[in-house]
Design goal:
Layout: H1 18-32, E1 59-69, E2 72-73, E3 78-84, H2 86-89, E4 102-104, H3 107-110, E5 132-145, E6 148-161, E7 170-183, E8 188-202, E9 212-221
Length: about 230
Amino acid sequence: MSPDDKVLGGGDYGYRDGPKVLDSMDAAVKAFGPVQPRNAKRQEPFPFRGVGVHSDGNVDLALYRCYLHLGKPDGPHLRDTLPLKKEEWSAFAPPKLAAGAAWTIPADVAKKMVRPFCLNTLGGGMPGPEDAKVAQLTAKVESISEGRARIRLTGTFEAVKLFKEQNLSFRSTATASGIAAYDVDAKALSSFLVVFQGTYQQGANPETQKGRPFGAVMEWQHKRPSSP
């Protein structure tokens, strides 16, 4: 096709029509005219995944998950993104800048954090807030030093997602432990990391299925580190 939608070549070819296909391609290129090399520039397809803040204050947390065996990765890592709105992200900022200050992350925000609890993405949907049966996450300022507050995150989670195809249904339970840094002068988070470790069950009545250990990571940083 030309830029003005004119057909330059093509046809209904079979597996034995290799020479005809090549001739057709040559004719199409000749009809099109000189072809300049594509001036493609490398760019980040997801520039805000796990780094930076959108102009509207929203952030995209980077997610990673995989099965575990004896505490080590067992199989490929699955990658994903969890977008949070500005007001949801602000729930992780300390309401009081003092060592020992503690607070509970709102349930509607904590429930979104079950998204990495699915280890089989073929044919099934990702778990969302409506699938969270338990989503308890607390935060505590451990210390404040050199203009930065260190925040400890701990939690317990459970997600159950059921499908008409019962073999795709699953249940995941996990504990969470994390750390975040808050820039006192900028009044904003500068880094965020939560690690999940738990058990994944899949099949009809997933709570009755044999569980398999899994781990997941949720991370974000204000600035992308410089390349070495």
